Amino acid sequence: MTKVKVKCGAIVKEISKGALKWYKEAGWKVIEKKEEKNDKTNTKKTTTT
User: Fold this and answer.
1) How many Cβ atoms sit within 10 Å of the Cβ of residue 13?
2) Which of 28, 31, 32, 41 lies at 20 to 30 Å from 3 by C-alpha?
3) How many secondary structure helices (H) and strands (E) does the chain include?
4) 19: how many CB neighbours lie within 10 A of its CB?
């Protein structure tokens, strides 16, 4: 799920991308967008002795 940080005056909220349309209509400004990444990789940790 993508989260978006929006601001209106001194109020800052983190909302979902689906609600962004309604916040923009109300005059909120987009500060930054966060994308959550799946970190499920098949990497093996190697140890050295």
Assistant:
1) 13
2) 41
3) 1, 3
4) 12
- CB burial class (10 A; 0-12, 13-18, 19+) of residue 37? exposed
Determine the Cα–Cα distance for residues 46 and 37; give it in Å rounded to an integer.
Answer: 24
CA distance linking residue 34 with residue 18, whole number of Å: 14
Element (H, E) at 20: helix 20-25
Q: What is the pLDDT of residue 45?
A: 66
Instruction: For 10-24, write each residue's pLDDT tens digit.
Output: 999 999 989 999 999
SS3 38: coil
